[in-house]
């Protein structure tokens, strides 16, 4: 057993020998921080993470709303789906790399790398001369956003017991309660002037906000782990350590699955631009190569990978598998109705830019407000499953209202849209939080960061699949519907590629009404598809395990362990008999 060292306060710390015995360096450092941190440094730590959350929330509340204008300026509004697929897949694949970096080095160094990529993305997007450059910048921004979100989740899981985990995660989302309203004024002024400033200003704001927070995290980390004793000193990384780390995160497998899904999903949004559509050789080649890469990934990970992305101990972890299915279906169904929903409300409702932005942020507002409330319910009952099942039911009701909005002869009612948006936000918040706490509860601390990142990877693949299906429906049906209702094919095409041409039409004009009917018909298909997938998600939540949320960091390293011998139907029976236990 390795020798344990004590800092000036007498707390026991883990030395480098402990790392060599199997505890990742980053995890050992953060455990030392948690074990010895007093209220003074804990307050600094919390404020630093909260400051990062503020910047992240302001970014995601505003920059997302510039995408319709940016793509329309390049006459490529329909490429919103291509952009979303690319950013989802790449942002997801990068998460295991970031998680491994935080384990191999420290949480603070991972934050610094994320900041660098974040700023590069804002600069490239703001200066982009073409749609391709804008997509590249958006990909870097997505990596930054994914990294900040991941590291915040990892640090919260590092520092909090299970019973408070969801509440604290919910509190990290509370900046949205402010930025949601502020963003309306920001977006309205930015799009009136130049959407590029919406990205450019974050190239200044982000480092100004995150650098002090990162410096504080570095200081707390160093103060506890590096005050002159033989503690876990600054990491010494050579080529052999990098090679080992890449093997351990299954980097080759990640690249295979990333390229596979990118090649299989992107044609769904690109085929409408190709000569011959799906018969174009490039589209066929992308699908074939993507399918071959996916098969190669499966074969490699099952039989050849030294450290497969989903090792056997994970495949038999019922909780994690349920989490993967729930998040995959949740994201797939969510993006089917949400990807072009802001475009739908912009055209079908008579709203100003500011009010439209407020409506677009309604779900975000609900997720953050009710996330804290659901977290307190988790804390009170020490359970999560019954609330997650309730959340999926609420989502089904909300999507039913969305379907109803597409059947109204005079256009959708603002009241039904808002009601559906609010209900789905309440339900979605508990679905997300239940999956997060379940996934973190079912693994030991040393596997936690990688588990969070892998769950996010498969969730984003679900999002990519949803976006691809949506893109195919949108690109196939909307142009035809616009021609059907508008009458003139040339005019209909200008409406399809530049949504502002529709928005600037007088409210009540014949072309505006025609476009509203076209959007209603297409969104009816999307809402119905999302409703069906959400029904499957409801079934998956019934099979979820129901750990007791106590004072431990997780639920598997103490006396409480999951019974893997139980059959799937036993979980349904347990839920019906004892929903809170």
TrEMBL record:
Organism superkingdom: Eukaryota
GO MF annotation terms: transmembrane transporter activity
Topology versus the membrane: Multi-pass membrane protein
Subcellular location as annotated: Membrane
Annotated GO biological process: monoatomic ion transport
Domain Major facilitator superfamily (MFS) profile: 45-553
UniProt signal peptide: none
Gene Ontology cellular component annotations, sorted alphabetically: plasma membrane
Parts of the chain that traverse the membrane: 39-58, 78-97, 109-126, 132-156, 168-187, 199-220, 251-272, 284-303, 315-338, 358-377, 415-439, 451-474, 524-543
PANTHER family for the chain: LOW AFFINITY HEME TRANSPORTER STR3, MAJOR FACILITATOR SUPERFAMILY
Keyword annotations: Ion transport, Membrane, Transmembrane, Transmembrane helix, Transport
Family: Belongs to the major facilitator superfamily.
Chief location bin: membrane
Name of the protein: Major facilitator superfamily (MFS) profile domain-containing protein
